[in-house]
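README: folding subset

This subset contains proteins for which both the sequence and a predicted C-alpha cell string are available. Records are stored as plain text. Below is the entry for Homocysteine S-methyltransferase (291 residues), shown exactly as it appears on disk.
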Amino acid sequence: MKILDGGVGRELERRGAPFRQPEWSALALWEAPEIVKQVHIDFIQAGAEVITTNNYAVVPFHIGQERFEQDARQLISTAVQQAKLAVQDTQKNTLIAGCIPPLFGSYRADLFDQNHVSEIALPIIETLSPDVDLWLAETQSCLQEVEMVHALVPKDHRLYWVSFTLQDNINLAQSHLRSGETLAEAAVLLKKLNIDAVLFNCCQPEVILQAIHEIKQLVPHIQIGAYANAFAPQDETATANDGLDDVRADLDPNMYLNFAKQWQHAGASLIGGCCGISPAHIKQLSSHLKE
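--- output ---
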C-alpha cells in the first residue's frame, strides 16, 4: 500500500500562488516556485509516499505553442527540482513520479493529433528522465495517445503507471474513459504494453469503485490505484479549462476516506487525491489506510 499526494494545482490556488487561465499550475513555476516546493513538503508531511512533478500544465494547450517551444524544458526542470528539494528537506524516502499529462488537454481525446505527439512528449520525458523514480501518465482518455507516448519513454528499470479519467456517470453499466472507450479496450492495451499499474483519477469518487472491480477482472495481476477529484460531476462537454470548478463542500477528509476504504477493500493499493484533495485529506488516508 502506498499513499500518493493530492491536487497540487488547486492547493497552489488556495494558498494564493499565481493561478489563472490558461496557464493554471504552470504559472507558479514562473512566478512562485518556492510555493510549489512547500505544497510538495506539506503533502509529504501529511503522509504521501509518492509525489508527482508539477508540470501537468506545461503543454501547448495551457501555455501556448510558442511559449512551450521556448520555455517548456526550463519549466519542467523547475518542476522536478522543486520536487527533489521537497524530498531533501523532509528527509523522507519519498518517490518522485514524473508527470506525463494529457498532451492535448484534459478530457480532450477529440483534440488528439498523432502527428504532434513526439514534439510535445519528448521535451517532457527527456527533461524529467534524469531525476524521476517512476513514470505516471495522468488523466488519460485516449488509448492511442497512451500507446504512442509509452513508446517514447526510456525502457529501463523504472515503473510505468497509467491513470485513466472516467466519465462521471454513476448510471453506466460499464465504466468508460472520457473518450467513450471502454475498460475492456484499455485492458488490451495495458497487457500489450506490460504496464505496471493502472489508476483512475480526475473523476468523482463515486465512479471509481466500479472501475476497480472491472479492471481487476480484466487484468487480474496488475496493481491498481485511485485518486479522485473533489469536483461536481463533469459531463461529456467538460474541457477542464473553461473556468475554476467549484470544490464539493461534502467531500471532506472523512468522507473521502470512506471512499478510499472501499477502493482499498476492492483491491487498490495506490491511493491519493486529484484536484481539490488537500494535505488534510492525505493525512487522513495515511493515518487509516496504512494500519
